[in-house]
Q: What sequence folds into this?
């Protein structure tokens, strides 16, 4: 599954969680390890919306595409304006649970959140998952 964004654009969006203003800063080594485990043709997905239900349903649909795929690693980053708007930390937890439940227990999951004032009342979820090239 690939959204209208290229894998490079998805990786750029994911890197926002390694920046200093992130709510939960992703360790750069964990991030690099996850990208290496995702291989050269990972599945990627990005959604932005003002409605939590729309975002969570889109995440569930993306996670359903994992099916029986051998996913070794995934990186998920949630972007929100701040925690005083439409989205709270509980919404971030819900997104995490959607992807954690869709993956095998042995898979490597890196999850982060970042503040992006340009989102105003929206939430953005960027997700990349895959397995090493064989």
A:
């Amino acid at each position: 599954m690939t959204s209208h964004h290229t894998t490079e654009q998805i990786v750029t969006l994911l890197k926002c969680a390694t920046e200093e203003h992130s709510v939960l800063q992703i360790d750069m080594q964990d991030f690099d390890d996850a990208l290496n485990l995702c291989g050269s043709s990972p599945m990627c997905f990005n959604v932005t919306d003002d409605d939590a239900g729309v975002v969570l349903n889109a995440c569930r649909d993306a996670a359903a595409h994992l099916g029986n795929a051998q996913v070794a690693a995934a990186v998920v980053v949630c972007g929100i304006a701040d925690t005083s708007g439409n989205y709270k930390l509980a919404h971030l937890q819900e997104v995490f649970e959607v992807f954690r439940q869709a993956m095998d227990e042995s898979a490597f999951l890196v999850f982060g959140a970042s503040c992006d004032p340009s989102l105003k009342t929206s939430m953005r979820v960027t997700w990349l998952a895959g397995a090493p090239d064989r």
In short: The helical segments are 7-15, 28-37, 52-64, 89-102. The two ends are 19 Å apart (CA to CA). The longest helix spans residues 89-102. Residues 24 and 107 are 20 Å apart (CA to CA).
